[in-house]
UniProtKB/TrEMBL annotation:
It is found in: Cell inner membrane. Keywords: Cell inner membrane, Cell membrane, Membrane, Nitrate assimilation, Transmembrane, Transmembrane helix, Transport. This is MFS transporter. PANTHER family: HIGH-AFFINITY NITRATE TRANSPORTER 2.3. GO terms for biological process: nitrate assimilation.
Amino acid sequence: MEKAQVTDAERTRALGLSTIAFTACFAVWTIFSIIGVEIKAELGLNEFEFGLLVATPILTGSLTRLILGVWTEKYGGRIVFTTQMLLTAAATWMLTWASSYTMYLVAALGIGLAGGSFIIGVAYVSRWYDAGRQGTALGIFGAGNVGAAVTKFVAPFVMVALGWQGVAHVWAAALALMAVVFYLFAKDDPALVARRKSGAKAPSLAEQFAPLQNLQVWRFSLYYFFVFGAFVALALWMPHYLVDVYNHDIRTAGMSAAAFSLSASLFRAYGGHLSDRFGARAVMYWTFGFSLILLFMLSYPPTDYVIQGKDGPIAFSTEMGQWPFVITLFVLGFFMSLGKAAVFKHIPVYYPGHVGAVGGLVGMIGGLGGFVLPIAFGALLDLTGIYTSCFALLFVIVAISLAWMHLSIRAMERGAQGAALDELPQLPEMQEIHHANQQARTRVLDEWNPEDKTFWEDKGRRIARRNLWISIPALLLAFSVWMVWSVVVARLPAIGFDFTPGELFWLAALPGLSGATLRIFYSFMVPIFGGRLWTTLSTASLLLPAMGIGYAVQNPETPYLIFLVLALLCGFGGGNFASSMANIAFFFPKAEKGNALALNAGLGNLGVSVMQFLVPLVITAGVFGALGGQPQTMSDGGQLWMQNAGFVWVPFIIAATIAAWVGMNDIADAKASFKEQAIIFSRKHNWIMCVLYTGTFGSFIGYSAGFPLLTKLQFPDVNALQFVFLGPLVGALSRAGTGWVSDKFGGGRVTFWTFLGMIVAVLGVIFFLGIKEQPGAFWGFFASFMALFFLTGIGNASTFQMIPAIMAREIPRLMPELDGGALRRQAERESAAIIAFTSAIAAYGAFFIPKAYGTSIAMTGGPVAALWGFLGFYAICVALTWAYYTRPGGLLAHDRAGPAAPAISAA
């Protein structure tokens, strides 16, 4: 498919309109850097709250870049750019309607759409230029970052005349006008026009996301995290910094900070020209090298020295004055602008068919730097009391980026010999696009047939077990972070947080809600991205809630909304289960699949118990010293380091992330698009198993989330935190240790008897709650719950053993046209997808069970009504298991270990 011929005038129009539109969007995106100072004083915000406010638009702008890039590839920049500007203008106007800090944050999320404009413009502009001129063109477009300087130059004067509300109105009106102008005068890009004429379909999501598996894409993302993310962060932070450090008024601070924004924007066009002429590698070396020097100078705090001389003490001090500071910042901005152009020089040439997805990811990570770094700046300032700590953090990021880039280049050079070394291009990553699209596949298993006994014994078992034993600790950490609120909420009132029981139950329940929802999406990620990459990314994502909790709990003035957001982010841990189970299911043969999944899930579930045992210990001591912050004083005079509930997981998460990337594998024939996996939604047994697994795993995770707070409320004289970890421990170990039972006797039978046992156990809980004032009632209540946890573990293993057995019988009937290897792969693919999807639905138990307790207590004064509801649900599960699977003639009536099932093997 060839592009339509375009003229220089059309190229210039596309570039000019896009640059002006991006400038307007960027001016709106950084609006809080000026009006935020007045809003801070108006609302009396502390440093953390102010940092969160100015960073919130950056979060939306960053997260939307990936999907906006994909939409631009599919629908074209003209319609996507126009729509994005109109929505942003509406959100900016509505900012003036806000009346509370919460409403300001909500409006800020809408304003953040402005930041997504960058990737729309990159995808749109790159299609008008050939590879030899794309660097310069994208550099000119990227100079639209100067919108930040426009805001700093102009907004202070508008604010003095019209108030901060006037700034919002003027900026919103200007952006809406720009949207209309762009729609009327811009044209569809030539690639989109050619595709429409040819009738070709737009690339699928799987096709667009495929390059994101390449490590160099994530390396580019780290570069952009500094050159762009730090630029945005400093643009937001500097007015506040200058007011506090140099005692400027807001107008002078805005003008001084604008010098940095100006240099970090306008010279981007020059950076594109230099990248075209000298190569992006050389420009990146200049950027990182000079940035290291400049950041070292900026990070050095004012210091007094005393030297013992021969005639007595000699005292002197060092401090960077106001104008040297502004000049140094200007020079830093210059080199950051060169780096921004150099990073995006690579993408349209290196990934010409995936500019939207790759550029969207790189832009998203860079934009997230603009969100994360202002919060980190505020946290470091609160922690150290040193204003220059923000530059010290950037110094560390640049040092890591430079080292990684240099080591990557050296590794590439060592792989070249003789004349080949002399012929290397300026862009080291662009050796004929990795030699005609040949990517290093050392971690991809091109052939994988675990049902072949010879293959399995020779090498399959060893590889599968290695992936399993890396997956287990990663999943354990995911469960620990997911359920950490179940312990934290029980101690928040003791350290000064004035939350009602209802609000506390919401905090305990929300991770379950978000985790379950994320599982629906995570269910389909492994066949799209590969198990190795997705496990690495999903494990690393746990750092956000872990570190966020560590900072938020240190200040009793932290708004409840912040805790709600952090509770939702803990759902990242819950989502990991779906992708982890789907990934491990591909590695093992049917005869060992039940035990492997039981080990992965059971020992992963153990994270709940580990968390409920470890957190009460680590919050009683300053484990991290000064780095961990000061303790909180309780109402009884004692001290707690509640922040350790989040910080304790950070080093382990980092280690597990590295282990997943280094040690895990992808299975080539396990790849599948969402469309191929979506066939499970038409399978009746998918929905039946969703109900049954909700009864087992939904009960386990829901009881784990609600057990600590329920026990504390019903038996206030008992130190519940000493015992509650035993419930998840029993459930996790029973799941890990009973997978063989289902492999031997059949998952259907085990599930049927498990639900009958759970009904009896719930009756025991109800009975002992009815006599809770009598001696020994607590121990009866506790023993009944231990039985419940034990039975949920058995049921978790048995239901997952059922799924491959069911699909082994159903696929030959439903798809008789398949045979041999195709039949086996289809059954495995659907089994993995159903396992992941049922885990997503069942995870809602983590929300509904704690919420049911809270609702029952609010309406009836006790939790018994909720327990009767659970009992009725288990009765339904008993009926479904018998009717479909274990009755005479049922699908699994004769299910035993392997031999009874129809064989599905490679041809």
